[in-house]
Amino acid sequence: MAGKKSFPLRLDPILYEALERWAADEFRSVNGHIEYLLREALRKEGRLPSPRGTARKEDKSDAEH
């Protein structure tokens, strides 16, 4: 597995506090929860392969034709 990319992330304090509570509810760190949320959003939009390695979701413009 490749190493993880580090970068600074500035968040509104209220947003961070909400993420902190949500992460605690899910027994994750804030960093781990942010990564989880981003991965799920990317997977839902077809921008990451599914966990089972299935094919990428059709481009939305192709689905309309």
Automatic annotation (TrEMBL):
InterPro entries: Arc_rbn_hlx_hlx, Ribbon_hlx_hlx. Gene3D superfamilies: Met repressor-like. It comes from the Bacteria. One of its GO terms (biological process) is regulation of DNA-templated transcription. This is Arc-like DNA binding domain-containing protein.
